[in-house]
Write a structure and sequence with these properties.
Layout lengths: L1 H35 L11 E2 L5 E2 L11 H7 L1 H9 L12 H8 L7 H6 L4 E3 L6 H10 L4 H7 L5 E3 L12 H14 L2 H17 L5
Parallel strand pairs: 3-4
Antiparallel strand pairs: 1-2
Helix pairs in contact: 1-4, 7-8
Protein name: Undecaprenyl-phosphate galactose phosphotransferase
InterPro entries: Bact_transf
Keywords: Membrane, Transferase, Transmembrane, Transmembrane helix
Length: 209
């Protein structure tokens, strides 16, 4: 209970401070998205899996053209690459000009600070997976089922172990094992260290696509 209390306190303080400090960046990003391509400010992406398997809408700035998800489903070659590359696509043709930049420096992730305020996410935690991603990957890696059960006991994080260790360069089986180890650790000090480690990881653009 002590860990849960301090973790929530850290989430609230960190997310509110983050919103205040990043507000100018977010406002400029909103303007650039509107000038760059027609469509909404936020990405229209499928729901994510949160704690205890509860689905939630993750907020992200739109970095792709409108209808990107439908384009993926209608293009067999693009869909094949998407699934083979840990649900990422190198040089994705759906990404806008502004989208390429905000994805590289992780600005598109900033709206998730509001998910943290709402209690749907945490500053630090496992990756927020798509339902179909968990289903398909567990079929491919049956040994990961035990790790996924542990991961779903915690809120997904804005950052975490995998985000600071290579991101897209790490396969599902290794990623869930790392996240499960984090969940079982339950350390506020480790959370703070991961938040601090996130800054150089973002600046170095490790694993960002």
């Amino acid at each position: 209970m002590t860990y849960i209390f301090f973790k929530r306190a850290l989430d609230l303080m960190g997310s509110v401070l983050g919103i205040i400090l990043s507000l100018p960046v977010m406002l400029v990003t909103v303007l650039l998205i509107k000038l760059d391509s027609p469509g909404p400010i936020f990405a229209d992406t499928p729901m994510r899996v949160g704690r205890n398997g509860k689905l939630f809408k993750m907020y992200k700035f739109r970095s792709m053209v409108v209808g990107a998800h439908d384009m993926l489903q209608k293009d067999p070659q693009l869909l094949k690459q998407y699934k083979q590359n840990s649900y990422k696509i190198q040089d994705d043709p759906r990404v806008t000009r502004v989208g390429k930049f905000i994805r590289k420096v992780s600005i598109d992730e900033l709206p998730q600070l509001f998910n943290i305020v709402k209690g749907e996410m945490s500053l630090v935690g496992p990756r927020a997976y798509y339902p179909f991603e968990l289903e398909e990957q567990q079929e491919e890696y049956p040994q990961t089922e035990k790790f996924v059960k542990i991961i779903l006991q915690a809120k997904p994080g804005l950052t975490g172990v995998w985000q600071t260790s290579g991101r897209s360069e790490i396969n599902f089986d290794k990623r869930v094992q790392m996240d499960a180890t984090y969940v079982e650790r339950k350390s506020i000090i480790f959370d703070i260290l991961l938040v601090l480690k996130t800054i150089p990881a973002v600046l170095a653009r490790r694993g960002a696509v």
